[in-house]
Amino acid sequence: MSQNLQLAITAFGGPETLKLQHSSIPTPSENLVLVKVAFAGVNPIDAKTRAGLGWGAEKIKDSLPWVPGFDAAGTVVSDGAAFNAGERVVGRIVEGGGYGQYLLADASALTRIPDAVSFQQAACLPVAGLTALQALELANVKAGDRVLILAGAGGVGHIAIQLAKAKGATVFTSVSSTNTAFVSSLGATALDYNESALERQVRDVDVLIDLMGGDVGEAALACIKSGGRVVTVPTITAPRIIEAAEANSISAQGMLVQPNAVQLDVLLAAIEAKTLLIEITKTYPLEQGVQAHVDIQTGRTRGKILLEMPE
Fold first, then answer.
1. Which of 41, 86, 268, 308 is 20 to 30 A off residue 240, Cα-Cα?
2. Which fold has domain 3-112+279-308?
């Protein structure tokens, strides 16, 4: 009988704790859809969870080995109430499991992929795309706002730049010198964080989308005008950023990306219409997932990293 090849976190620690394993192919049910995965996104939250940090690690600490992968794109295996066999789907998988050939996903988390959108493009959206979209909505970004996005060349950042520009905002973003041309091509003003402190390069910003947290996120508050708005994404340092912001009369809140098939449809339609560009910097075979984690934990990757599942 066919087996399901997966890449699992076997213990909290470095990338080497990821190990290949075989499991039985799961059985679909009324509300659970069996998907043959084509590509899964690799996200910073995957590496943090593997390292034993944050809400994800707390949730799975008694369930190791555990298969990560919160977003995946693939093909429905068998007919069901919501989808038919052969349909191409993508979803934000709260329970993980994307790092495997087969995935059992809640039907409500999945949506169909338009013909003009590739599996690879779709697989970049459930975590990074939804995070970007939901962060901008939470911050109530509107036309005329001056928006600062930290780490604009990354998976979430490069999508957030484009979505903020589409809302009519003026966008600034922190990057290294190697990525200034890239973010400029997306319509943002690049701020080289190695050149000088960000507050020396931009002031009186209305909105901060903090994708870094920690010291970097707190320092960026100096760029925000009194009464400005902050959405900070890294959950580990969110309390610290919120406290520091409020001490300076800045409204701040943290966020945790939520599954939303309707919003996924919006992002997929933007790719189809060629109004949203997805940058994929590297695609690794599942068997090289350890290297993908080595890359993503540097915090310096451009765009998205994907894992491709074997046939």
1. 41
2. Quinone Oxidoreductase; Chain A, domain 1 (3.90.180)
